[in-house]
TrEMBL record, chain A:
This is ABC transporter permease subunit. The lineage of its organism: Bacteria, Pseudomonadati, Pseudomonadota, Alphaproteobacteria, Hyphomicrobiales. It is found in: Cell membrane. Pfam families: BPD_transp_1. The keyword DNA damage does not apply. One of its GO terms (biological process) is transmembrane transport. Residues 62-254 form the ABC transmembrane type-1 domain.
TrEMBL record, chain B:
The keyword Ribonucleoprotein does not apply. This is ABC transporter permease subunit. It comes from the Bacteria. It is a multi-pass membrane protein. The chain crosses the membrane at residues 34-54, 114-132, 144-164, 195-213, 245-267, 293-314. Residues 108-314 form the ABC transmembrane type-1 domain. The lineage of its organism: Bacteria, Pseudomonadati, Pseudomonadota, Alphaproteobacteria, Hyphomicrobiales. Belongs to the binding-protein-dependent transport system permease family. CysTW subfamily.
Amino acid sequence: MRKGLSSVNLVALTFGFAFLYLPIVLLVIYSFNASQLVTVWGGFSTRWYVSLFHNEQLLEAAWVTVRVGILSATVATVLGTLAAVTLVRMGRFPGRTLFSGMVYAPLVMPEVITGLSMLLLFVAIGLDRGFFTLALAHITFSMCFVAVVVQSRLISFDQSLEEAALDLGCPPFKTFIVITLPIILPAIVSGWMLAFTLSIDDLVISQFTTGPGATTLPMRIYSSVRLGVKPEINAVCTILIAIVTTGVIIASIATKRAENERAKAERAAAAGR
Amino acid sequence: MTDVLTPDPEAPRAIAQAPDASPADVGGGRWKRAALIAVPYVWLLVLFLAPFFIVLKISLSDTVIAQPPYQPVLDLANGWRGVVDWWNGLDFENYQILFEDELYVASYLSSLKIATISTLLTLAIAYPMAYAMARAPKSIRPTLLMAVILPFWTSLLIRVYAWIGILNPEGLLNQFLLWTGIIHEPLYIMNTETAVYIGIVYSYLPFMVLPLYSSLEKLDETLLEAAADLGSPPWRSFWQITVPLSLPGVVAGCFLVFIPACGEFVIPDLLGGSETLMIGKTLYNEFFLNRDWPVSSAIAVLLLLVLVVPIAIYNNIQAKELGGKA
């Protein structure tokens, strides 16, 4: 396709991005509203941020959310990477079709179904609902996202590097650790971040699988949103948006840099041959 | 039910047959390889697949006021008799309820309608965006891509919440329109189906733009140049070259939006009104407000049956997409 933007293209981009960002920008702006009424501008103020830090319930929910997020993202990254390696490098094995189906289906499965089915499993095996079941549920859906991210990296890199190591007598496990792992590391890191974000953002699956004492931030936000828009909620949302945005931008810059350096090193190695 | 999770066998076979010098195959031993496969496999079997069979089982049970709130409960302490009693206690009564009560049938139909219309609306907004992104100078493309992905990382709940402040009768949209003098009475969009459409289109837009962009970006420019040299006007090249070649992206994007939108709960719950019926919301209310586990399980089973075909097609595309490059 001939490159260069026509005025129609510019209109499409402007309209599209305005649609994507305007609501979020307005939400952030109104979190600094001095007025109690959310939609009437009463001057600039940070009072809602101050009142957040005195809201015990919200702080406790935030702590639960972060703990579940870190635990589930870490386990999901290990399992998701194993699943990706299985799909790309294990060739044929019995039940492969079922396995790839189980990896891709959670990506589009409506959350109410996943949530309900996991809850019924926990009840059936007599597991007390709470922090632990919440983490189990989060691991299960986020490992599939990690698997897809790592899988696309595994199939795009030069396999001859692995083959060379194996030909030189390096044992398979060591080859994986020394050659494969460093190459797919950026994908593993972004997989972890994706899993962490999915976990701290999740509402529906958490509602089903949690129990007393394990209320997460989205659950708290949801129950107060049902009662109406409040400036304090705008402030919590703004903080969450800020954390996620900074994390994503830093990670993408770091990944880009790591990839560039690797490409440079590979070119240098090729030139030296 | 396993069909839901089993994509077309053709696609993964293609990957399986791809020549591979897998490090685990060379030496290492079969046991290590089997153990490696078994860890994620067993995890998904136990925590993803097995629960569906439990849902199916409970959908055939009766509602009781007890803990757990359904019966029969499989009692292995009674040996074979326990199994027989349990089996005899299962019936299709809950499904009968679903088909007899208009609420459920209407919820299913309305979900399909809302999901279809919002998928088409999303496509209409996403296609020009993705097209423009693919034509943008190479240097700014990663930034544009990032800008599309970023909202996806922000919680769905937060993005839906943002719209409440905009769409309320005294919200920002009405304030703006009243101020400009375009309208003289506030618009009542909040708590209507229109608000649900806006919410779904907004929330799922990145899912549509990304696959469209990746198929449009791969498009071979020389095809369009050749068409132009042969005297084809741009609109004709667009319809006969660009559109057909971007179809895989269109199909993938539509499924990525349609399937989750069908079972959406947060958007109809927060933006829709009491007359906006969607099956995800009905299931949630049946479970949390009425505490009727067997009926909510039956709703889930029927929703899965409706989505089996789209999910299988989607899985097939995924496996091909990721397997094709291997």
